[in-house]
Structure formats: C-alpha cells, structure tokens
Amino acid sequence: MPLPVIRRGYPTVRQVREQSGMSYFDVAAAAGVKLRVVYWMEHGIAVDPVDAVKILTVLSLRAGKVYTLMNVQGIRVKEVRKG
User: Fold this and answer.
1) Which one in 47, 59, 60, 61 has a CA-CA gap of 20 to 30 Å to 21?
2) Beta bridge partners of 47
3) Which residues of 5-41 are buried (b: 16+ CB within 10 A; e: fewer)?
4) Tens digit of pLDDT for each residue in 3-52?
5) Cα 73–79–82 angle (5° rounding)?
6) Would you say 2 and 68 are in contact if contact means Cβ atoms under 8 Å apart?
7) Which CATH number applies to 13-63?
8) How far apart are CA 78 and CA 68, in angstroms?
C-alpha cells in the first residue's frame, strides 16, 4: 500500500478538525464512524473510502468549506475490491 500523498499547501485532516473546533469524539459521532477511524485517518493509516468521505463531509459542513480526498493531505484509503 503506498504512503499517503503529501500535497503542499493543503491542510491535514487534523488541522481541519482542530480549525473546526471538533474533537475526535465529535467527528466520530457526527460521521457515524468508530473513534479509531478518525484517529487512523489523521495518522495516515488506511481507512475505508466510505468512512473517509463521511468524516470529510462532517468537517466540510462544520467549516463551511468543501474538503475532499484531493484537497486534504495525508489521507490513505483502502483499496476497494470488486467481486
């Protein structure tokens, strides 16, 4: 599995969460994911793509700005296997 992509000039998940004034607990509860998933995402551990989108959606709504896998650095998602 490749390392997370570092995109200079873009915030990390942790920076977005902290700027939004949310704790791990707040994000996990609002996104409907386990607390560890928020921690993993912030620390570059691969998470399910659906969980990543849920977390980014919560942060986007709180911040009033759209955050995606492309404009937040250091996010790793698990490969989606078909079939």
Assistant:
1) 47
2) 77
3) eeeeeebbbbebbeebebeeeebbebbebeeebbebb
4) 555 667 899 999 999 999 999 999 999 999 999 999 999 999 999 999 99
5) 145
6) no
7) 1.10.260
8) 16
Mapping DSSP to helix (H, G, I), strand (E, B) and coil, where does residue 41 land?
A: helix
34: alpha, beta or left? (left if phi > 0; alpha if psi -120 to 50): beta
Cα(23)–Cα(43) distance, integer angstroms: 15
CA-closest candidate to residue 14, choices 74, 57, 78? 74
Q: Could you tell me the pTM of the whole model?
A: 0.88
Neighbours of 71 (CB within 10 A): 14
67, 59 Cβ separation under 8 angstroms: yes
The residue among 22, 30, 81, 83 whose CA lies nearest residue 57 is 30
